[in-house]
Amino acid sequence: xxxxxxRTEPLSVRTSCAILIGALAAGNSLGSPDVFEQHFxxxxxxxxxxxxxxxxxxxxxQLTVISDYLKA
Length: 72
Description:
Blueprint: H1 11-26, H2 33-48, H3 53-71
Helix pairs in contact: 1-3, 2-3
């Protein structure tokens, strides 16, 4: 299955993916932590390891929101 976070996607799609996951976490819309771990965590890992610094910067800005979501 193709994911928005794959490196073959344009830069704008990968950065948008990072921001979208953060917005979903802020809105408590990611489902249970188990759902997050199964479906969203692989995407977050891909984005954190992206070769482009802009993508890594954007996901770093969302990690605090995601971690707050997981603590709740």
